[in-house]
Amino acid sequence: MTYLLDDAEIKALAREESVRGTLVQLALNQAAEADDQEREILEEALQLLLQQFRVIEGTAP
Amino acid sequence: MILRSVELENFGRFHAQTFEFRRGINLVIGPNEAGKSTLAEAIPAVLFGSTRLERFKPWGRNSCIAGLVFEEQGRTVHLKRNLLTDEVQLVERDDLYHSLSKFEGKVPLKGRTAACREYRDLLNGLLGLEDESLFRATCFFGHYPQEWTGDDLSRKLRTLVSGSAETDYAQILDQLLEEHFQLTRSSPWGRDKKRDREYENLCGQLEGLEAGDMTVAMVENDASSELHQHIDALTEELSRDRQEYQKGVRYIDHVRQQGTIEPADQETEQETEQETEQAGIQTVQRGDSEACDLRAKLAAAGLPDNLSCEVPGLLAEAEQIRQNMAKLQQPLSMLNQREKRIAPVPWFLPLGITALGTLLTVAAWVTPFSSVLVTVAASLGVAAGWGWGVWRHFQRQKILEVCRQERNKLEQKRAVAQALQSDLSERCEALGLPSSAIDLVRLQKKVKDHRDLLDLWWNNESPPAGRVKAEAVSESQSQDVIQEAVVATTASSEDSAELTQMQARLVEFADQLREKEQTLTDMKQQLQDSVSAGETSIDVSVVTLQRRKLELERRILVLRQAVDLLAAAVDEYSKSHLSRLNKEVSRMFSQLTDGRYTAVRLDDNMMPSIQIDGRSWRPVDRFSRGTFDALYLSLRIALAKVRSDGRILPLMLDDPFVHLDQRRLSKALNLIDLAASDGQLILLSHNQDLGKRAARERWHVVSLDGASDEALPEEGEDHVGQLHLL
Question: Measured between beta carbons, which residues in chain B are less than 8 angstroms from residue A19?
């Protein structure tokens, strides 16, 4: 069980006025109504997307 | 970024002329054919290239060159293009004249070379524009302004509005979708792909393995089949040899009973046996005290005290054989079900067709209809019916043959397992163990639960254990005893040469028998090992495939979730920014139409609609040309205000008010005045009234009445426009 969506950094991202912020906000909204299994998938998808964003921005490790 | 100057060399009617512009409103005024539109068109032609060279290239000239100078706080961009060769030079410099970026290369209008991509990237970075259509849709307004239509343009406009580079998100989406469709052909967003992907292939493999096809194929190989034949042959040979050996033993006993053995020898033998027994009894007495407790514990655990130490190995072997047999049951039962599912050929259909055809033929012959035609048709129908029936029959036979072959393979494998099981049963019986599967399972559980106790019991070299072992000797061990007895007999009956020779041959025969038994045991073990290894490898591959299947299912779910999430986020983000543009354009359009239309809406494809009577929405193309122009002018000005990258670009208006009435013209001028307050607007017109307004409003004026605006005063001098007009 991961807790990515409970992370403070994620909640800060959700306030960002950008596609990424909207994305995180949507994920948080969906997670609020999801069961454990759906939440895990959601978190994994969000991690994947955030990683892709980092690649685009050139900040990926 | 404002346009500081346009330099034209052999461009249209301009041979070598430079037009300078300033921040705010610039009015380029001149009569028809003065070159206003040529000047306006020079800007996109330099930026992106042009295919309308005949319009710009003067007759008899070998060059057609235009240049632009853009300026922003702290930097200047010089752009120059040879319209004939499409050679472009771009230099960006800072205040200290240091070069910040530079490009030189050939960039035609629709070029796709690496140089073109490099140039467009550079242009996009500098101006936020990379193609002509977007420039004309946002920064250019002519007699017939470019509409906001087309998927590509609407996508670029949305990107301008939202600030999110949709191309980047499209790239992420493409990557996610590509990975998704590498894993599976199934698509939740549209039609499935035709070709199976890794997931579908994996499912197919797993189904095959679970149906047992691969099990049979892998296990029943040539090597095991050959081994199986050797075992059969050796078993038969051993059976014959054992009978011969028994005959030999019985014959020697018979000879001895005939009195060839001396009584004294018999006594000696009896004494020897008694001594051995006595020694055993003494050993038993020594170990009795230690064994007593163990025996009691074994009895409490429900285990007999005569269990051999070979029992665990034997039980493990029994377990393995039992599992093998159980595994064989599944493919067999599936095969049975498959055979049951093969439907019999519906022969009644061809029979029915035949009967019908016959009836029709008879009817045709007794009625005035075309009897030959009906007969031919009926014959064809009957032939087709029987052909179909025969085809179905052969198909069925083919499937049954495949099933039969599979069944044979499974039966062979089961025969091997049964042979191993019967051999095991014999060995169990020899050790005094139950031979039924249920009893063996129970015993195995007990042995497993009390293994420590049994190890202690077997390690304790007490006489009972030794005696038990002696009692539970295998057949070969019994033969050893017989051999010893024969040797002893030989020693005691040296006077009988014939008997000695027979006994020697018997000993030799017993040796051979033991060797064969050992060989048989080794071969059986080898066969069992190969079967177990084959099944183990299949088990391993099934487990591996199942694990991979789960991994794939999860990854596919994650990818789908990611795609949906990103698409929804981009959409929502664009919509939120689109609503800002809607509000801004509604405000401007309402102002321009003097409150007649108060609401404008852009749909997802950036197509504008106007609300009428506060209720229904109507597409803009259903309105008059004046309203149409007013709306697209409002859209350009509104977009310049709300575009998210914050760039300020010059807005070119080439006679934009020709379709506006006097009232709207006045409103439009107020609007562009407002729009130019913090940017740059270049208005090209022949309207002399605008010249008067320019003088009043102190716009910068460029006259095209045949001469350039030479000796322009410095920016900031308020009287400049007015003086120029005077």
Answer: 162, 164, 169, 569-570, 573
b/e code B202-224 from CB counts within 10 Å (16+ = b):
beebbeebbbbbbbbeebbeeeb
Domain extent listing, chain A: 4-57
Phi/psi for B650 (5° steps) reads -65, 140
| CA dist list (Å): B453 to B65, B439, B448 | 104, 20, 10
- Rounded to the nearest 10 degrees, how much is the dihedral formed by the CA atoms of B174, B179, B181, B182? 140
Local structure of B496: helix, strand or coil: coil
pLDDT of residue B89: 94
CATH architecture under which domain B164-260+493-574 falls: Orthogonal Bundle (1.10)
d(CA A58, CA B260): 106
Q: What is the ipTM metric for this complex?
A: 0.94
Where is B81: in which H helix or E strand?
strand B75-82
> For B314-373, how does the pLDDT look when each residue is reduced to its tens digit (9 = 90+)?
888 887 887 777 777 777 777 877 787 788 888 888 899 999 989 888 888 887 667 788
Count of CB contacts below 8 A, A vs B?
Answer: 55
Q: What is the largest CA-CA distance in chain B?
A: 163
Residue type, B705: D
Vertex B616, ends B615 and B618: CA angle to 5°?
A: 145
Task: Find where tokens 């042959």 sit.
Answer: B233
What distance in Å separates the CA atoms of residue B585 and residue B600, rounded to the nearest whole number? 7
Contact check, Cβ <8 Å, A49/B565: yes
Q: Is B521 at the interface with chain A, CB within 8 A?
A: no
Q: What is the DSSP string of B277-327?
A: HHHHHHHHHHHHHHHHHHHHHHHHTT--TT--TTHHHHHHHHHHHHHHHHH
> How far apart are the CA of A1 and the nearest CA of chain B, in angstroms?
14
Among 3.90.180.10, 3.40.50.300, 3.40.720.10, 3.30.360.10, name the CATH number for the domain at B2-162+593-725: 3.40.50.300
What would the pLDDT profile of B230-241 be if each residue is shown by its tens digit?
A: 888 888 888 888
Interface of A with B (CB under 8 A): 18-20, 22-23, 26-27, 30, 41-42, 44-46, 48-49, 52-53, 56
Give 3-state DSSP helix, strand, coil % of chain B, rounded to 5: 65, 10, 25
pLDDT tens column, B488-543: 544 454 556 777 778 888 888 888 888 888 888 888 877 777 766 666 666 667 78
